[in-house]
Design brief:
Blueprint (H helix, E strand, L loop, with lengths): L1 H4 L27 E4 L5 E4 L8 E8 L13 H11 L8 H8 L10 E3 L4 E8 L5 H14 L5 H18 L2 H14 L4 H4 L6 H6 L2 H11 L5 E3 L1
Length: 226
C-alpha cells in the first residue's frame, strides 16, 4: 500500500472498492493488542485459533536495502544470514539446531527475508510444550541485539550469500529486476538497491562495515515483535 500510494497511476490496478486520499485504510485486525515498551520496541499480539497449538513469532526491523550506501549494497541481507550463524548466546548454528529440535520448519525464506524497506525474522513454534515460546522470544532478542559479526563468521557466510546472488541472475531474477525498473524508472533508488546486493560487495565487504550498519539500524525504536 505504501509503494502504491507513491504511484497514483497504479490505483486502477488494485482490486476492490475505490477509495479517496482521505479514506483511512485499516491496518490491523480489530482484536490486535499493541503497545510500545519503555525501550521503544513496539509489539503486536493477535490470538488465532488455527493452526492449533502453534504460534508465529516475528521480529520486524524497519529498514531494508534502501538505506544502504553504494559500498554497502547487500549487507542488510548478509546480516540477516549471520543471525542464524552465531549470536551471543547461540554459537555454531545453534539456533538452527534449536528450531529443528522442536519441529519448527526451517529453510530458505521460511525464517527470514530482507526487502527494500524491512528485514523480518519468523519462528513457527509449538505452544503445547512448556518453555518453547519463551525460548523462541529469546532467539528473537538475539537477532535484535546480539548477532555476532566477526570476520570468520562473515567469510563462512559469504559462500551462501554468493550462491543466492548467482541464483538471482536467472531468468526469473532478471525479469523481476526489469519489472522494478519499469515500475519506478531507471536511476531511481529502488532499482539501485535490490536486496540481494552487488557481487563485489558480498565478496569484499568487511565485518567492521557490517557491525557499524547493525549498530546503527538494529535499534528498539525501529523494531517490532509480532
Amino acid at each position: 500500500l505504501d509503494l502504491l500510494s507513491s504511484f497514483s497511476n497504479l490505483r486502477s490496478l488494485v482490486g476492490g472498492p475505490s477509495c479517496s486520499d482521505e479514506d483511512e485504510l485499516p491496518r490491523l485486525p480489530p482484536k490486535t493488542a499493541t503497545g510500545v515498551l519503555t525501550n521503544g520496541l513496539t509489539y503486536f499480539v493477535l490470538k488465532n485459533k488455527e493452526p492449533k497449538n502453534r504460534a508465529e513469532l516475528c521480529l520486524a526491523v524497519g529498514f531494508g536495502s534502501l538505506v544502504e550506501e553504494e559500498e554497502e549494497r547487500g549487507i542488510a541481507h548478509i546480516i540477516e544470514h549471520l543471525g542464524f550463524s552465531a549470536t551471543k548466546a547461540y554459537e555454531n548454528h545453534a539456533i538452527v539446531k534449536f528450531l529443528e529440535s522442536i519441529g519448527a520448519p526451517f529453510g530458505a525464506c521460511q525464517n527470514a527475508y530482507t526487502t527494500f524497506d524491512r528485514t523480518v525474522y519468523t519462528l513457527h513454534v509449538p505452544t503445547d510444550k512448556e518453555g518453547l515460546v519463551e525460548e523462541s522470544l529469546k532467539v528473537l532478542r538475539e537477532f535484535a541485539y546480539f548477532t555476532r559479526i566477526s570476520e570468520e563468521d562473515l567469510d563462512k557466510e559469504r559462500k551462501v550469500v554468493l550462491e543466492e546472488w548467482r541464483e538471482s541472475r536467472n531468468a526469473q531474477g532478471r525479469l523481476s529486476e526489469r519489472y522494478v525498473q519499469a515500475l519506478c524508472g531507471k536511476g531511481c533508488r529502488w532499482c539501485e538497491r535490490l536486496p540481494i546486493g552487488k557481487e563485489e560487495v558480498i565478496r569484499g565487504v568487511s565485518s567492521e562495515t557490517l557491525r557499524k550498519f547493525y549498530q546503527k539500524y538494529y535499534h528498539p525504536a525501529q523494531m517490532a515483535i509480532i
